[in-house]
Amino acid sequence: MDEQEEITPNSIENSKDADLITRILIEHHNPYHTMEASLQLNGVHLSPHLVNQVLLRLRNLSKIAMGFFVWAKEQALYKHDCNSYNTMINILGKVRQFDVAWQLIIEMGQEGNIELSEKTFGILIRRYIAAGFTRQAIRTFDDMESLLEKETSSSDFNMLLDTLCKYGFVKVATEIFNKRKYQYPPDIKTYTILIYGWTKSNKPAMAEKLFSEMTNKGLEPNAITYNVLLNGICRWARLQPEFKFHETVEKAERLIMEMKTRGVEPDATSYSIILHVYSRAHKPELVISKLREMKQMGICPTIATYTSVIKCLCSSGRIGIAEELLDEMTSNGVSPSAATYNCFFKEYGGRKDSENALNLYRKLKEPSSLCTPSIHTYNILVGMFCKLDRMDIVLELWNDMRESGTGPDLDSYTLLVHGLCEKKKWRDACCYFVEMIEKGFLPQTVTFETLYRGLIQADMLRTWRRLKKKLEEESIKFSTEHQSYQFVPYKR
């Protein structure tokens, strides 16, 4: 059960045409006329797959994506498919343009070649919950039945509960579960979802109550259920003073024994959870010992296992051993992920070791690299080099991030604007703040306040007024350009 994963209807594939169109759209973007770039696209042969691949590349640039979506829709001999609509609904949900997302759903229902599906509503429900709008999410779930013209299933209900729990709304999930469990008979997956929600909220008593209810109904827990409970024991446990650490490990070992008694064999995830406890307690020797024990039992470590161990070694300052483990991973056929490399970047950041951070980053960019930097990688490095006042490197990272199509996202802009404010580079901060709004991001309240206070203290009130006026004009003109859609101003 991954937390708050990036919600995308499908994934980016290699496509030179999609890369080219995306680059044209970004380079020729005019915030006041979103499809001025269309002049550069004359003669492009569109297909639903190509359009969807472009939209996926523009997932963090909602205004450019919407401009392209509308332009494509108006082209002769072309019709959007359900994937393009789903991707656009997902993009709009990220920036809380829910009224427009609903308009697209209605459009889908009116198109003869598109059949509405549970997937579309699942995307919208996830975006509502991610924004904290749980009532609207439940209402959308209830509307599914009439709009799809078929009964919602237990699988659909589990999807709703799962999303509520992943975003921290386990009380809402439990309330709706208790009201509707006779309509949607719970299975092992339903209980596992709710147990996960309560362990995530650090309420082990509620998780144990649901576990008992489940077993009393004759539903046998599986490895996933036990791993959720195991994670609950280990996740919030206090590891200091030392006896607290030993208490936590003993509880975890007892649960492992119970699993075996019930005939459920611990898997790589089970051991990864315990390894993570050792890692949090900064006990590298125990981490390495447990990893060795795993291998002796014939359990192959996963990316998550290796990453936990590498994280512990890096945070303990044992980067040399961590690098050896990285080599072992690749020789065993386990490709490191961006999260694995991020352990090194975080440690380099803490040490202000710009040289090794840059060397590793450039190694990741090589064509032979097994992994490419993720948006989180870029954000770690942007934050690090902003603090070190290495704006030349920040600019290099920013350009690489754009060219690769990885970002920037809201966090990237927030880090950069705050970093520039800390260095009192007010004009640069204003430029990126405006660009942030133009690209369709919603700045956090603290970003507004930081920039406003800084400009006032720097005696730049006129700059703030001009900035505010420009943003208001941009919002009005964007809404005017897409009058058929009910856009709300891009601000919090």
Automatic annotation (TrEMBL):
Q: Which domain of life is it from?
A: Eukaryota
InterPro entries from the xrefs?
PPR_P_subfamily (IPR050872), PPR_rpt (IPR002885), TPR-like_helical_dom_sf (IPR011990)
What Gene3D superfamilies does UniProt report for this protein, alphabetically?
A: Tetratricopeptide repeat domain (1.25.40.10)
Q: Which UniProt keywords apply?
A: Repeat
Q: Where are the PPR repeats?
A: 81-115, 187-221, 267-301, 302-336, 374-408, 409-443
Q: Which Pfam families match?
A: PPR, PPR_2
Family label: Belongs to the PPR family. P subfamily.
- Which protein is depicted? Pentacotripeptide-repeat region of PRORP domain-containing protein
